[in-house]
Design goal:
globular, alpha+beta, two-stranded antiparallel ribbon, 5 helices, 13-stranded antiparallel β-sheet
Length: 324
């Protein structure tokens, strides 16, 4: 559900943003507590001191059509998240520390091959992998209600300062534009949009096997999207609740274009996704998931003075999640 993969300076699709958009679209977290004998009550219910790790692998093929010629890029993005519940207040608001624990990135195209692993980084990091390298190890703290609503996020300024320090951008006219873009991508509104996708699954009341419910999400930053996701409780076995998910995504018509200084970028996209996930009733964290997403549309670049270009774009993505 989302960073194409390159350093923040090099392409219109920032790596973290698109990757994180696709990842968060289907990394759904919730909590199941027993209600009546035939229903479960989905709520976020972490416990103080709990640490949950989520490893995600995103396999993607992106196709741009430039001057009538399709150009494809295959990429694999590995995101290892660490969620540590620092506290749970009397009103059940959880304070959670989020860490980008591990990052891997591979990209193959007709131009070159790129590979990065935060656990074993190369001596020389490819420019289009520097955004991933700068993200590894970064942290922030968020407050999350049982409904999944995020009420507060702290630590983002320090995180962005650290990212910029790691990127060590050269002193060029583009530097302030890139810095503004990074601060926008990791601003409070953008991070809240992305994080709330993780928790936007809860029904308004307890549900039984076979029941479905729909959640709608709007994102205004980065690649602006609206999402409409329908969840169905398929079965409950012991601690494991099995969910099926079908969703639709489209460009957010109310969002402003992405301003990169010398040009502005807007998207007209539409797509769908489907898959399954397993969630622990006791802890509320996802245990496993497998999703497939497809989208297509146009990317419009506005260079000013009535100069615009429109590039057809499409992508097929498979996401596999595994919790530890």
């Amino acid at each position: 559900m989302l960073l194409r993969v390159s350093s923040p300076a090099s392409r219109p699709f920032p790596p973290y943003r698109f990757a994180i958009r696709l990842f968060l679209l289907l990394s759904v977290c919730g909590s199941f507590a027993a209600g009546a004998a035939d229903t479960v009550n989905l709520r976020l219910h972490p416990t103080k001191g709990q640490i949950q790790k989520l490893n995600t692998t995103i396999e993607q093929k992106v196709t741009n059509t430039i001057n009538g010629t399709p150009q494809s890029v295959n990429q694999s993005i590995g995101l290892g998240y660490r969620f540590e519940t620092l506290d749970v207040a009397a009103d059940d608001i959880a304070t959670v520390k989020v860490t980008f624990d591990t990052i891997t990135f591979k990209q193959t195209s007709a131009v070159d091959n790129i590979e990065y692993d935060s656990a074993n980084p190369p001596a020389q990091i490819h420019p289009r992998a520097k955004g991933f390298a700068a993200l590894a190890g970064q942290t922030f703290i968020m407050n999350v209600a049982p409904s999944g609503k995020i009420s507060q996020i702290t630590g983002l300024d320090a995180m962005v300062d650290s990212i910029l320090k790691k990127l060590d951008l050269p002193q060029t006219p583009a530097k302030p534009v890139i810095e503004r873009s990074i601060r926008r991508e990791f601003g409070e509104d953008a991070v809240r949009d992305n994080m709330e996708i993780m928790f936007a699954l809860y029904p308004d009341k307890p549900v039984s096997v076979g029941q479905s419910w729909t959640r709608k999400i709007s994102m205004s930053k980065g690649i602006p999207l609206t999402m409409e996701n329908t969840f169905t409780l398929k079965e409950v076995t012991g601690d494991v609740a099995l969910l099926a998910l079908k969703g639709k995504l489209a460009s957010n018509p109310d969002a402003a274009p992405l301003d990169l200084g010398s040009h502005k970028i807007s998207y007209l996209l539409a797509g769908d996704l489907s898959g399954t996930m397993k969630v622990s009733k006791e802890t509320g964290w996802i245990l496993a998931a497998e999703m497939n997403e497809k989208f297509s549309g146009d990317m419009t670049t506005d260079l000013g003075a009535d100069r615009t270009t429109k590039t057809p774009i499409s992508a097929e993505t498979k996401i596999v999640m595994d919790a530890k």
